[in-house]
């Protein structure tokens, strides 16, 4: 028993002399490596990041973090002792890494102090609803490069030809031609103004009696059906709106900083 106690005392004494850590130092640091402290704050930051990535916080994780930080400190000290930290390319990389940390912290601070409010989200949703309109249309179209071709297609329709067949034969729109010109359901303002105006004048089952000219060419348009706009409730789209508005706010913040910066 005496021998065992002596070995324990020797082990404890060796540990203390090796690390030279006092009790107050232990409260502030997770370790001291060759006289350089590894602060608790650094360990806490790493633990928070690993927890954010999905790992559960536990004594095992904290021990792994301590071991990792000690290893990093040993390696970093070795790099410094070899003069690696003064190499130009290493100094440049260190500066970039430092800037990255600062930028992430700045963005986190901005998002915390300038959050997207519920009132702002509601206002954006109301604006989008107004832009969407009260109706949406299930339309088909045939796009051709010349007015004469469009008139020829209209004549064929009057003669009994099927719109979908003519779309597959004539339309130059790669996105809809092989689907019989089908544009699926969309609000009128999803289209260029000339197309939208012509579409809204049609009744269900009607097609345009004259070619509709836009920047893309000449269209023959058919309205399959119309219905009240199917607008999802705010609760369904709120996450996407918040994300979009957060990005817009951040972009405005960055642009403001760049505008006010003195750049030579």
TrEMBL record:
<dbReference type="Pfam" id="PF00639">
    <property type="entry name" value="Rotamase"/>
</dbReference>
<dbReference type="InterPro" id="IPR000297">
    <property type="entry name" value="PPIase_PpiC"/>
</dbReference>
<keyword id="KW-0413">Isomerase</keyword>
<dbReference type="GO" id="GO:0003755">
    <property type="term" value="F:peptidyl-prolyl cis-trans isomerase activity"/>
</dbReference>
<dbReference type="InterPro" id="IPR050245">
    <property type="entry name" value="PrsA_foldase"/>
</dbReference>
<keyword id="KW-0732">Signal</keyword>
<feature type="domain" description="PpiC">
    <location>
        <begin position="134"/>
        <end position="225"/>
    </location>
</feature>
<dbReference type="InterPro" id="IPR046357">
    <property type="entry name" value="PPIase_dom_sf"/>
</dbReference>
<feature type="signal peptide">
    <location>
        <begin position="1"/>
        <end position="27"/>
    </location>
</feature>
<protein>
    <recommendedName>
        <fullName>peptidylprolyl isomerase</fullName>
        <ecNumber>5.2.1.8</ecNumber>
    </recommendedName>
</protein>
<comment type="similarity">
    <text>Belongs to the PpiC/parvulin rotamase family.</text>
</comment>
<dbReference type="InterPro" id="IPR027304">
    <property type="entry name" value="Trigger_fact/SurA_dom_sf"/>
</dbReference>
<keyword id="KW-0697">Rotamase</keyword>
